[in-house]
Structure formats: C-alpha cells, structure tokens
C-alpha cells in the first residue's frame, strides 16, 4: 500500500502537509456554505483561513533547520565568533553565503502569516459583530429563519406599492405561523421577548450551536428542502 | 474629385448649433412667455435656413466646405462637409423647419397642447441632428448624429404621454435602436478596423469603394447590415415603427415623415450606396440587385397597404414608406442619374408629403376628423386646405408641373441607363397605386356631400396652420420650375 | 513630496485616523477633513500619472521602507509601482472618491446619524485600500490591501439598517472565500518562484519556462477564482445585489463604481504582469472556456436586471453584467478587446457613479427607488434626471458618452478575434439596457401605469398632486457632484483618444494579437 510512487505514499507521506491543508480547507468551505447557523459558518471560515495559514507555514519548514536568527558560528556580534567576523561586526548585519543559510528556515512565509492572522482576526471580529447585529435585529442566527424574515421585510417594503405578494414557501404550518409572529413583532421589543420564549435556547450563540440538533429534529420540513438555496434566492 | 476646391468654413457648425442656442432660449422663455418662446424657435430656424442657403452659391461654384470639429479616434475625425446632395437635404430640412414651426404654433395652440416648451426644445434638437447628418463627412460622424436624432425625437413621439404614446414610442425606439446598435455598430467597427490593424476613415470622398477590398461575403454582409441598420429608411421588414409613431402630434409626424427622420434614413442609405460602396463596387458585388428587388417590393406592398387604410395619417404613413422605397431604389440603381434622382426625390417628396400632413393636421384642428371616410364635403368647408392637399397629392403621384415629376423622371432614366426595364414598370405601377390611394381622399372631400352635416359654412383651420400648407403646396410648383438648380446641386445636367 | 505615489495612499490614511480620532465629539470636522484629504490624494494621483506618462519606462516605482530590490529575483520588500494602467485606475479611484465625498454630507447625516466619525474613517480607509490595490507591486501586499478594502467595505455597508447588516453577512463569507483563494494561489506562486514581487514572479516564470508546471496552473486557477468571486462574476455574484441595494447611499455610491472595477484591474494585472500573456492565453484551457462563461454571465445578469422593479437593485445587476463585459474583453484575447476592457473599467466607474449618485438623490427626495414612485420626476428634478440619464445612455452605449467608446473597442475586439458569441451577447445586453433605461424614462415621463392603464386626465396630466410635480431640485451638495460625474462621463467620452493612447503605450510591450484577416 505504501510502496514507492503509489498514490497513498504521495498523499500521506510525501505531501502530508498538503493533504491536511486541503482536508481542512474543504471542511471549512463546507461549513461556510452548507451550515445553517451563522456562527457555525464563521467557525468554518476560521477553519478555512487556518488551513491556508498551515499551508504557508508548512512550506517554510525545513528538516533540521532552525529559526532564522544567526547561529553562533554565523553571528557577527557573538563574542565567541572568529576573529574576522568580529572585525566585520562593527558594520552591522551581514549577508550569508548560500551554503551557510541552509541551516535556517525561510522566515518569509511565517511573517506573511502574521499579517494573514491579523486579517483573519479582523474579519472574524467584524463578522461576529455583524452576527450580533443580525441577532439583535431579527432575533435569530439561523439562516433559514433569517431569510424568511428578510423576505417578509422586503416584500413589506415593496408592498407599500401593492406590487409583490410575499412568496409562499414550501413550509410547515408551524414555520409560517412563527413567521407571521415574527412579522408582527419585527421591531417591538415586547414581542421579541415573546419570541425569546419560543426559542429561549438561542439566547447565546454558543448554546445555540450545541442545541441546534434538537431544533433540527423539531422542524425538519423547513430545513430539508433548501440546503444551499438561500443564497441564490437571496440574490 | 481632386480638382474641387475645399474651403474651411464655420458655417456648417453654425447651422448645427443654431438650434441648440435656440433651445436655451426656448427653455428660458418657458411656458409663461409663449410668444417669446416661439420667437426663439423662429429665430433659430431662420438663422439655420439663412446659413444653409448662404452656402448654396459656394457649392454651385463647385467648391466643398469643410469644418473639423473634433478627433473621435486618432484615425477618424468628426468632420463636417457640405457637398451637393448634403446641402440639398439641409436646405429642404431647414426651410421646411420654418414652415413647420409656423404650423406647429397654429396646431399646438389650436389644440391647447401641453408641454409645448418641451416640444419646441426637442424639435430644435432633432433639427440640429438632421443638419449633422446632412453635413457629415464620414460614417462615424453620421452615426453620431443618427443616434442623437433617434433619442431626441423620442419625447416628441411620446408627447401625448398616454398609453398609445407608450406603445408607439416603444415600437419607434425599439426598431431604431435595435437596428442602429445591433446591426450598424458592428458594421461600423468592421469597416474601421481594417486589415493588419490598419484603419479606414470611411470618408465619403476619399474612401469610396475601399469596401471592395473586403472579401465577397463580407461585402454582402456589410451591405445587408448597413441597409437594415439605417432603419429610419423604412425598408420593408423594418418599417413598422413609422405607422407606430403616428401617435405623435401632426407637426411631429410632418417632421418625422417629411423633414427629419425618414429622410435622414434614406439619406444615410444614399451615402452608403453612393459614397461608401460606390457604384463600381456595388455593381461588381451584385448586392444591388436584391436591394432593388427589396425596394421595389417595399414600394408595391406599402402602396397596397395604404389603399386599405382609413385613418388618413396612417394612409400617409404607408405612402411615405413607399416613397422612401423610391429613394432606396434610386440609390441602389447605381447609375449617376438614378442616384441623382434619389437625392432629388428626397426634396420633392419632402415638399409634397409635408403638405399632405399639414392638411391632415389642419383638418383635425378644424373639425377633429381623422378618417378618410369622414371627409365628405370637406372641400367646400376648407377649400384652401383641400386644394393644397390636391396639389401635394399630385406632386407625390408625380405629375408635371409639380416637383415629384422631376425626381421620378430621373429615377426612370437611371433605370433605363442600366437596362432595368422592370424598374420602370414598378415605377409606373406604383404611381398608379399612388393615384388610387391619394386621389380618392380629395375626391371624397370635393365631390361627395356629407349626409350628416348639411352646413357648408366656410371653416378653415387657424391661419398659422393654413399659411404653411399653402406655401408648401406652392413650393411643389417652384421645385418643378427651379429644378435646374437642384439638378446642378446633385451633379446632373438638366 | 518628491514621491506623490505614496501620498496617494497616505493622505486618506491619515484622514481616516483623524476622523476616527474625532469621535462623536468633533464629528463636524470629518466632512471637511475627508474632502481635504481626498483633494490632496487626487492631486497626488494626477502627479503620479503625469510622472508615469513622462518617464521613459512609463512607470513610477517606490520601495517602501527602502528594502533593496537588487537581488534576483527581485528580493524582499514591498514595492509601490504605478505604470500607466495603475496610474489611471488610481486616478479613477481617488476621483470617484472625491466626488462621493463631496456628495456624502446629507446622506451620511440622514442615514447614519451620530456615526459620522466612524463612517468617514472607514470611508477614507476604503479609498486608501482601493488605491493601494491599484498601486502595489507585491502579490501578498495586494492580498492585504484587498482585505483592507473588503473589511472597510463590510463595515460601510453594515453601518446602514439591520437589513444591510444581514446582507453584509453573505458578502463577508463570499468575500473571505475569494480573498483566501487568492492568498492560496499566491502561496503556490511563492512556492514556485521564491518571490512575491509581481514583476519578479514573471521574470522567474519566463526565465525558467514554467509554462507547463502543474503548480503554476493551480496557482493560476486559484488566483483567478479568488478574483472572480471578489469581482462578482456571474455565478459568484450572489453577495452583490443585496449588499449594494441595502447599503447606505454613500456607501453604494463609493463601492459600486469602484470595487468590482478595481478587481477587474487586478485580474488584468495578474494576467499581464504576473503570469504573463504567454502563460495565460497559450498554456491554459481558459481561453476557450472563459468567453462562454462570460456569455452566460452577461445574459443571466441582464435578464435578472430586467426582472427588477427597483432602481438600485436593477443597477446592481447591471454591474454584474458590466463585469461580464470587461472579463470578456480580456479573455477574447486581443489588443482591442483589452483596450476595451481597460477603457471600460474607467468609463464604467464614471457611469456607474453617475447612476448611483442619481439613485441616491431619488432616494433622498422620494424616499423610495421603486419604479412605482418615479412618475413625474422629469418635471420635479430635471437636472438630476439629466445627470442620471447621461449615465444611463452611457451604459447603453450612445455616443458621445464614454460608454460608446468602450463598447466600440469591445465589439471590435470580439470581431477581430472572431468571437461572435461574445459580440452577439454584447448586442443582446445592449438591447436589454435600452429596455431598462427607456422603461425608466417611460415610468418618469408617461402617465401610464405598468399594466397600461392611463392615469391622470390626459394631455400631460400625470395624475399627481401639484406638489409632486412642482420643480423641486435636489440640494446643491448632492446635485453638483452628480452633474460633475455626468460631465466626466461626457469628457472621458470626448477625449477618449487621449486615454486610449496611453493605454496603447501601456499595452505595447505585451505583443497582443491585432490581426484582422478578412481577405
């Protein structure tokens, strides 16, 4: 199975780092696209970005090499260096020969990833704050609930001109009654509290992710017909 | 053409800009000062006509006037050039604009139309575009003004702002913009970007016949694209915008049919056949045969349709389509006398048809009648109007001593020059059809008495409506007697 | 000030910091600070462009931090490099930024009251990011700047209503996927070439003949995919309409003309400067596939635009269609197509700006941009409508607006490379645009309901109250930028040859096919 040149050797031995990053990448991508909970989507996004960071870091790795700080024998400032190095030390850092640098890892990918991590954190923070706003505004972080409410809001806005009737979705009666509640309670806080009763579980996003399986079981008809559609329909 | 003198002169540009200046005045005067507003229209029309007419002696002496406005691309300028056919067309358009303005004042006030400021502004704008087309020196310049005309006539066509106007406007713009953007634009860029990355200028004097360097198929395709691209010419499959645009007020119809839009279309076709392809290339490629057949079919079919129309304006519209067919036919004949006849027909038909439209409008203003069958006994009530109608009809039919005769005569001569006997027969048959659909109108008006209205009291339209139509009717006579000047302009020996 | 190239980015950056520091206490200074920094930035970009035009190499370079680039292949260090293309795009970015800043005073006060300092901070950062994208010569730095622009963009959109926040979420997800793909592609590039400098990468590719390397192909696919998502190319456009439609007025005015266009610039930059024409067009299958994708993209976007009944939404789909135009112009692979694409980037920025400014005014005055609320607008706001429809006519491609000239080059390109399907699609979408805009004109001009009922009493009576048809023009602070944008559309059209000349100078070294063989 692991003989020379077989696909398994290539994937799992020679290019294990690539294999891992691709798997992580796909997990992240899947979560971003297919998950229903916005927070889970963001977790997917984090995994996705981390996979890329791993990829970068892994290509900078070299076997037996060390971090790119002068080894004692190369260091022009070191006290136990050779005499000629000591002379050159006055003039600051020094370019090493190609043969000499083989003992160092390439610092550049790692440095780049510092920036990428910062970007990732910023994105995550921003996205979470947007989630918070969505939750405050619509009382949900479940994408299908949210889409339902958004669609009703849109059709209400357009409905001032009596043009578009809200499209009926293929949904269970419970979902539509819940939606009707949501419409009537759009901005009033008291109603939102009432909604909170109905889904007291979704108070905190983290809890929500834990308990999403139970809510799945409760309303299957709403979930199933549209695994990926929301995005397209939203457009 | 190398021996002609080329004169740099700003007058073409003045003729182009006069309506713009007039438009500013019109908007400034606004609805509150109607007299001032219409004065501005008159002034700009008169200035334009005067400038254009002042160019006549120069052109008759064999010179060509040019004015360079702006470099569109590095290889093609926006160049104004006044030559014989262009000037003839410009003269017709600008002189008839004065007449139309006078008529419009009578018509619009007579019917208490709304938004007259908008009406006069866009009217001026479309005349500017017409001048531009008449004075263009290359294809791209013509295209610019052609598009400007399409857009600036849209508010005129939809003047009534109601449902019918919407339908008419949609047809109008749909046809014109579809053909110009989807057929004309590719044809143009095909012409301009030439072999090996070089460029043609498509100048109407320097680059005549350069199209002949393209392959055989390409030439045919180009001819096809151009012929139908200029849909304002109303060639048969692309003609329905014209009856559709009849929802506009009558002065606009008169403008569309006699002065600006359709004439711009056929003038462009004339330019394509005469000054882009040239008679040599045209006869070599054999493309002119099917164009002639197409034009003849248009003439006959539209005349037959006109016979069946009861709405006077619609009948005139189909008559126009047929008459435009003459011009296209003449341009496609590709002999000197045929193409000269085509340009002459632009002028002759303009004068005749505008008279007819003025009459239709005057009848509507005075009596509110739109249909031929309602006109019984009207000859007694409106003798001037119906008399002018008679003259216009005879001119369109092509009887001497009226202008229409000259152009038809030269068209026939051109056809004989290339031994196309069938073209002459088409001309004869269609003239006969013209008689059938135009004369009954006059006959009904003069010789049938109305059963319902027994009151033969004299009731003409307001004088600003009547004066222009009388003048244009007289114009039909003048065009016959002054035809030698016109012939000279288009380069034919009388 | 000998290096205006860095100041293009620095002015808005400093302005952003100032605005952010101003906080809620001194928020009145934000508007003047933004205007000043944008004026300075425009001035710097004009100077940079002039320098680039006059230089013998036709580019201006600046090494940030003084890192040497002498080592082969172009060693570490970030380079800001403005060739003519970059200079032109930068000028477009800063120019649009300036006009939108001028316009922003009233809408920002109305839509995000009390948050001016945050808003202008993000706004200026966005412009800094976009200008940086156009200027940078470093592939990784480009990623960072793309993310700077994207993050500020999310913030700018989400500052609006709750609905906008919800729309932003989609944008965040898709935008991050796009940028991450790009980053991944850059990783492969670095892996193969050992440099991140754009010119350096191409030098290595050419020196080592890496045209058939699978890793390079993967890098190319990833980079392209990332950019296509970011530019809202058709199947990846889902984020765009909602985000632009629900965003605050000023945000959509700034983002709509710039973001997608700058990403197209990035694509052109990647193809020409990084991967090289030879690699892109001769060693990949994309040349065959992309034009057909473009056809699908334009047709779908145009049809979806037809279905919209709201101006901003319709415009959003128009942008998707226009993206198709430009991508197609690049991928039909010839000289004229590329000129058309580049020129269309410029002209589309101008005309989209025009349209969104106009839509913003309509929103401000009528409180809606739904088609049913537009009747009588010509009488009410004639100047605004003139500005708006100059943009509209430019989208249709009527001369002498700039849209005509870019379309001219695109059509010519399609013809020269005999991509008839692309040409026919252009024609089709042109007709759709005619329908879109003349339908709007009908809605504003005629007294007819959509179903064809006559309204009012005929003779020009629109069936409205007198107050609704009275002359009631937009406030000057919004009207002047609109008219400015409209005149830019016309000026760019009239002087198109000056710009095209410069683009031709830029394209000369790339040896693109121009041949026409119709013999």
The total count of helices of chain B amounts to: 20
Largest interface: B-C, 45 and 45 residues
Radius of gyration of chain C: 22 Å
- Summarize the helix and strand pattern of chain B as letters: EHHHEEHHHHHHHHHHHHHHHHH
Number of strands of chain B: 3
Report what the structure shows:
The complex is a heterotrimer of chains A (235), B (494) and C (519). Chain A has eleven helices and no strands. Chain A has helices at 7-14, 16-34, 38-59, 83-88, 107-138, 143-159, 173-184, 189-198, 205-218, 220-223, 229-234. In chain B, 72% of the residues lie in helices and 4% in strands. Chain B has 20 helices and three strands. Chain B has helices at residues 11-29, 34-54, 56-60, 84-110, 116-135, 139-157, 163-192, 216-229, 241-244, 250-259, 261-285, 287-307, 312-333, 336-367, 378-381, 383-397, 403-417, 421-447, 463-481, 483-489, and strands at 6-8, 64-73, 76-82. Chain B has a three-stranded mixed β-sheet with strand order 1-2-3. With 519 residues, chain C is an all-alpha fold. Chain C has helices at 4-22, 30-54, 84-103, 105-111, 116-135, 139-158, 162-193, 198-208, 214-230, 239-246, 249-275, 277-282, 286-307, 311-331, 335-366, 377-380, 382-396, 402-416, 420-445, 466-469, 476-494, 496-507, and strands spanning 59-63, 79-83. Chain C has a two-stranded antiparallel sheet with strand order 1-2. In chain C, helix 2 runs antiparallel to helix 3, helix 5 runs parallel beside helix 11 and helix 6 (139-158) runs antiparallel to helix 7. Chain C starts with a helix and ends in a 12-residue tail after the last helix. The mean pLDDT of chain C is 87. Chains in contact: A-C, B-C. At the B-C interface, strand 2, helix 6 and helix 7 of B face helix 18, helix 19 and helix 22 of C.
């Amino acid at each position: 199975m692991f003989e020379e040149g077989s696909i398994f050797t290539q994937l799992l031995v020679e290019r294990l780092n690539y294999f891992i990053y691709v798997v992580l990448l796909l997990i992240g991508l899947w979560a971003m696209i297919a998950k229903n909970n916005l927070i889970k989507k963001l977790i997917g996004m984090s995994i996705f970005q981390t996979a890329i960071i791993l990829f970068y870091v892994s290509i900078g790795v070299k076997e037996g090499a060390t971090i790119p700080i002068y080894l004692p024998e190369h260091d022009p400032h070191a006290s136990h260096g050779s005499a000629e190095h000591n002379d050159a030390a006055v003039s600051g850092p020094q370019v090493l020969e190609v043969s000499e640098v083989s003992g160092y890892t390439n610092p550049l990918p790692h440095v780049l990833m510092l920036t990428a991590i910062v970007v990732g954190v910023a994105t995550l923070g921003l996205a979470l704050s947007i989630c918070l706003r969505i939750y405050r505004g619509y009382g949900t972080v479940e994408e299908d609930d949210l889409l339902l409410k958004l669609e009703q809001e849109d059709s209400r806005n357009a409905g001032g001109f009596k043009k578009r009737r809200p499209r009926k979705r293929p949904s269970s009666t419970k979902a539509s009654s819940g939606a009707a509640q949501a419409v009537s309670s759009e901005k009033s806080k008291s109603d939102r509290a009432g909604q909170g009763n109905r889904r007291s579980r979704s108070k905190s996003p983290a809890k929500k992710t834990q308990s999403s399986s139970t809510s799945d079981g409760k309303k299957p008809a709403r979930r199933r017909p549209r695994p990926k559609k929301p995005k397209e329909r939203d457009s | 053409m190398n021996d002609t003198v080329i004169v740099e002169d700003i007058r073409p540009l003045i003729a182009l800009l006069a309506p713009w200046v007039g438009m500013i005045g019109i908007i400034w005067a606004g609805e509150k000062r109607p007299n001032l507003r219409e004065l501005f229209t008159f002034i700009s029309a008169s200035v334009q006509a005067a400038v254009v007419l002042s160019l006549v002696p120069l052109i008759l002496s064999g010179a060509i006037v040019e004015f360079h406005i702006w470099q569109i691309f590095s290889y093609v300028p926006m160049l104004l050039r006044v030559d014989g056919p262009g000037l003839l067309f410009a003269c017709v358009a600008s002189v008839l604009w004065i007449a139309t303005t006078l008529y419009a004042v009578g018509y619009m006030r007579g019917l208490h139309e709304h938004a007259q400021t908008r009406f006069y502004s866009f009217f001026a704008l479309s005349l500017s575009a017409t001048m531009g087309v008449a004075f263009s020196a290359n294809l791209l310049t013509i295209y610019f003004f052609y598009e400007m005309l399409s857009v600036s006539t849209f508010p005129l066509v939809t003047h009534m702002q109601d449902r019918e106007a919407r339908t008419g406007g949609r047809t109008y713009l749909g046809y014109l913009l579809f053909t110009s953007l989807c057929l004309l634009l590719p044809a143009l860029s095909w012409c301009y970007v030439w072999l090996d990355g070089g460029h043609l200028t498509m100048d109407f004097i320097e680059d005549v016949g350069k199209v002949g360097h393209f392959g055989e198929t390409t030439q045919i395709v180009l001819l096809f694209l151009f012929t139908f691209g200029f849909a304002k010419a109303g060639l048969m499959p692309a003609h329905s915008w014209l009856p559709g645009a009849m929802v506009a007020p009558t002065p606009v119809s008169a403008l569309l049919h006699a002065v600006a839009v359709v004439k711009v279309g056929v003038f462009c076709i004339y330019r394509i056949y005469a000054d882009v392809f040239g008679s040599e290339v045209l006869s070599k490629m054999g493309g002119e045969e099917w164009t002639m057949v197409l034009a003849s079919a248009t003439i006959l079919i539209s005349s037959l349709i006109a016979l069946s129309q009861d709405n006077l304006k619609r009948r005139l519209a189909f008559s126009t389509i047929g008459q435009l067919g003459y011009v296209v036919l003449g341009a496609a004949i590709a002999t000197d006398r045929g193409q000269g006849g085509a340009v002459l027909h632009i002028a002759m038909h303009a004068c005749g048809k505008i008279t007819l439209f003025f009459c239709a409008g005057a009848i509507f203003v005075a009596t509110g009648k739109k249909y031929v069958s309602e006109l019984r006994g009207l000859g007694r009530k409106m003798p001037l109007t119906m008399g002018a109608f008679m003259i216009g009809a005879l001119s369109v039919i092509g009887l001497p001593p009226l202008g229409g005769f000259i152009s038809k005569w030269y068209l026939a001569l051109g056809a004989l020059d290339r031994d196309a006997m069938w073209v002459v027969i088409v001309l004869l048959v269609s003239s006969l059809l013209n008689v059938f659909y135009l004369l009954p109108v006059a006959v009904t008006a003069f010789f049938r008495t109305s059963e319902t209205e027994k009151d033969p009291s004299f009731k003409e339209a307001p004088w600003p409506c009547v004066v222009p139509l009388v003048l244009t009717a007289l114009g039909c006579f003048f065009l016959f007697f002054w035809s030698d000047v016109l012939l000279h302009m288009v380069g034919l020996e009388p | 000030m000998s290096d205006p190239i860095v100041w293009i980015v620095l002015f808005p950056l400093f302005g952003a910091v100032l605005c952010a520091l101003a906080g809620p206490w001194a928020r009145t200074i934000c508007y003047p600070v933004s205007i000043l920094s944008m004026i300075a930035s425009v001035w710097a970009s004009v100077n940079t462009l002039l320098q680039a035009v006059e230089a013998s190499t036709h580019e201006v370079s600046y090494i940030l931090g003084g890192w040497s680039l002498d080592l082969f292949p172009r060693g570490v260090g970030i380079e800001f490099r403005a060739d003519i293309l970059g200079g032109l795009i930068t000028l477009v970015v800063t120019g649009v930024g300036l006009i939108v800043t001028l316009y922003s005073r009233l809408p920002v006060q109305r839509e995000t009251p009390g948050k001016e300092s945050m808003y202008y901070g993000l706004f200026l950062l966005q412009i800094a990011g976009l200008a940086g994208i156009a200027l940078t010569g470093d592939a990784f730095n480009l990623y960072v700047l793309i993310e700077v622009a994207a993050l500020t963009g999310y913030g700018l959109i989400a500052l609006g209503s709750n609905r906008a926040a919800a729309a932003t979420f989609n944008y965040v997800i898709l935008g991050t996927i796009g940028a991450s793909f790009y980053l991944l592609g850059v990783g492969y590039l670095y892996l193969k070439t050992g440099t991140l400098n754009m010119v350096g990468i191409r030098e290595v590719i050419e020196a080592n003949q890496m045209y058939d390397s699978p890793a390079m192909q993967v890098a190319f696919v990833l980079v392209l995919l990332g950019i296509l998502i970011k530019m809202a190319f058709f199947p990846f456009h889902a984020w765009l309409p909602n985000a632009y439609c629900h965003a605050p007025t000023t945000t959509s005015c700034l983002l709509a003309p710039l973001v997608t266009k700058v990403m197209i610039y990035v694509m052109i930059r990647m193809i020409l400067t990084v991967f090289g024409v030879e690699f892109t067009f001769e060693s990949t299958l994309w040349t065959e596939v992309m034009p057909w994708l473009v056809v699908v993209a334009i047709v779908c976007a145009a049809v979806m635009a037809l279905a919209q009944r709201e101006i901003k939404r319709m415009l959003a789909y128009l942008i998707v269609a226009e993206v198709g135009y430009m991508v197609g112009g690049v991928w039909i692979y010839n000289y004229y197509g590329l000129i058309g694409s580049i020129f269309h980037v410029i002209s589309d920025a101008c005309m989209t700006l025009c349209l969104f400014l106009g839509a913003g005014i309509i929103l401000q005055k009528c409180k809606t941009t739904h088609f049913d609320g537009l009747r009588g607008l010509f009488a009410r706001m004639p100047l605004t409508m003139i500005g708006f429809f100059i943009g509209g006519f430019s989208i249709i491609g009527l001369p002498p607006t700039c849209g005509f000239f870019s379309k001219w080059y695109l059509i010519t390109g399609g013809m020269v490379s005999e991509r008839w399907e692309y040409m026919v699609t252009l024609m089709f979408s042109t007709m759709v645009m005619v329908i879109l805009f003349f339908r709007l004109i009908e809605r504003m001009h005629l007294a007819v309901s959509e179903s064809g009922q006559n309204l009012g009493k005929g003779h020009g009576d629109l069936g409205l109250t007198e107050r609704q048809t009275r002359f009631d023009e937009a406030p000057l602070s919004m009207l002047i930028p609109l008219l400015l944008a409209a005149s830019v559309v016309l000026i760019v059209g009239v002087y198109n040859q000056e710009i095209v000349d410069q683009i031709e100078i830029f394209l000369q070294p790339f040896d693109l096919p121009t041949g026409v063989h119709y013999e």
